[in-house]
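Work package 3, deliverable 3.1, input record:
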Amino acid sequence: MRIESTANAALASIVARDFAERAGLAPASGAALATATSELCTNVLKYAGTGWVTFRILDSEPPRVEVVVEDRGPGIADIDQAMRDHVSTGGTLGLGLPGTKRLVDSFELRSEEGAGTWVRIAKYR
Amino acid sequence: MRGEGRAVLQRVGNAVLVPVQGPVTHDLLAGLRRDLLGHLAQAGASGVVFDLSGVEVMDADDFAQLRRVVDAATLMGATVVLVGIQPGVAAGLVVLDADIDWPRTALTVDSALKELQGP
């Protein structure tokens, strides 16, 4: 689904939680995945304006729920720096990527300056 | 629409109870700020209780935006207490390293109202 307002970013986090529940993950895992999805969608709105989020359940053992959040925004110039804690620009909260990574079991990030950002998170515990 | 949050103010003695339902979107907070500050200006209140038990997801940015509404109500002379923060929301905000030092919190609406009424 498309991300273009806080209303559909909020809806995305609810969908993430529903997927986690459907996959049989614990409620705490569903809440963590929903919060991580919300963080990533908030970043899209803040830095890229619009983007997309997709969800899927992998029928593995244990089942795994993946959320991909992507945009064609400005990209991240220094990924290493963005993944460090307490990095903020202009007194804002920053990207919140280290915290988002801590919330999930798998975190992959690809970004190219001027081309966009792609993040895949997964929860299976 | 599903996922659309709302908040309706309720008067309880000298306090205002704000039950927040659903996602904490910009629209929800903007409406809340307008309604709450308007109510405080017209009717006054010594306390404001935000009941967040109906909020299942809140990220660090949502929480920071909520703080702006709370700060504005505080500036108007009200003591603000947050209650009913869900376990998943609390755990998430801690893991995200969100700023959680600012709010006064209570477990239930009853205990918050008692606290606001004083001894």
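The two ends of chain A are 25 Å apart (CA to CA).
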